[in-house]
Amino acid sequence: MKISISDKPVCKLAGIVLAGVLSACSTTVERVTDPAKLKGLEFLQPGTTQRQEVEARFGPPFCVYEKDRVATYQVEPFKDGFRASPVHKWYSLVLLYRADDVLERWSLVNK
Amino acid sequence: MKGSRLGILCDSRASTWVRVCLLGCALTVSGCLPIPYPPYAKNRISEETLQAIQPKQSTRSDVLLLLADPTVRGKEDAYFVYEWMQGHGGLIFLATAGYTAVPVADVGSGNCNRFAIKFAPDGHVERTRQFLGQAKVAGKTLLDKNAESIDSACSDPDLSTAIDAWVEMEPGHAPCKALQLALGKPGALPERGEVAGVDGAS
């Protein structure tokens, strides 16, 4: 029986490690659209969610723009959702509010 | 010929290469295990995202929703700069003893790129441009905390000057001329600086 090099467990393991290294080393700034990765942010409903609700969960924003109209948070996955994490920057949560402090648009950005 | 050789030796980039090669050879001879690592990108901005930002159509909020916090915020948010790092691969040297291996040095090359966005007073994107930094070789040991790392390519002063000139430029002015003046090279495009630009003003 002929066994190719790729059938050897060591080579398979090396391949898995290399694939992991390659994927872990590169990061692209992009909006997260996968619903599975957005789990825990269902409470963010444009036209409904108030600024106070967001701040009750995440605290004061990391940065604000356009006279507080845009607020950003650094967040990391935590249990079944996300929590604010000024130290570990996994994702950026960007929230755009209307003048009456109701959420207008939002996005989670992978950085 | 002799003069040009001397020029190469005196060139700071060439001397960096020499230092990095010497460091690599010394580590290999001393028994350290060189492990190659592949090219990588840190905070790369995809072409699709770049294309989504349209001058005179996209707003500052649109940009923030796409790219989140910028690396640099201009005065009164008149411009944003996003930085991304491109590594070209290199070697990590491991000191081995028995079953343990500890990384002791890192040599590699990379360049820092920047994507600048200038906003109009009404908050719409006025123009955008991508600035590509020059590839830089760096090597450092864990003992030398102050050594240049590849990431320090992001502190490229020429690139910063070029961006400052581009940001200050009034709409309608020739962008290349401003960049040439900033880099002191009239009559020729700068060696580094914007290459794959998307300029809404021109």
Walk me through the structure.
The complex is a heterodimer of chains A (111) and B (202). With 111 residues, chain A is α+β, with helices and mostly antiparallel strands. Chain A has one domain (31-110). Chain A is built from two helices and six strands. In chain A, strands 1, 2, 3, 4, 5 and 6 form a six-stranded antiparallel sheet that branches. Chain B is an alpha+beta fold. Chain B has one domain (2-194). Helices cover 31% and strands 33% of the residues of chain B. In chain B, strands 1, 2, 4, 5, 6, 7, 8 and 9 form an eight-stranded antiparallel sheet that branches. Chain B is elongated. Chains A and B meet through helix 1, strand 1, strand 5 and strand 6 of A and strand 2, strand 3, helix 4 and strand 5 of B.
Quick synopsis:
Chain A contains 2 helices and 6 strands; from the N terminus they run H-E-H-E-E-E-E-E. Chain A is α+β, with helices and mostly antiparallel strands and 111 residues long.
Please give the largest β-sheet of chain A: 6 strands, antiparallel
- What's the number of helices of chain B? 6
Low-pLDDT runs of 5+ residues of chain B are: 1-10, 172-202
Largest sheet of chain B: 8 strands, antiparallel
What is the CA-CA span between the terminal residues of chain A?
Answer: 48 Å
What's the alpha carbon Rg of chain A, rounded to whole Å? Answer: 20 Å
Oligomer: heterodimer
Helix share, percent of chain A? 10-25%
User: Number of helical runs of chain A?
Assistant: 2
Q: State the secondary-structure class of chain A.
A: alpha+beta
- Rounded mean pLDDT of chain B is 73
Average pLDDT rating of chain A? 82
General shape of chain B: elongated
Domains counted in the coordinates of chain A: how many?
1
> Which strand-content bin applies to the residues of chain A?
25-35%
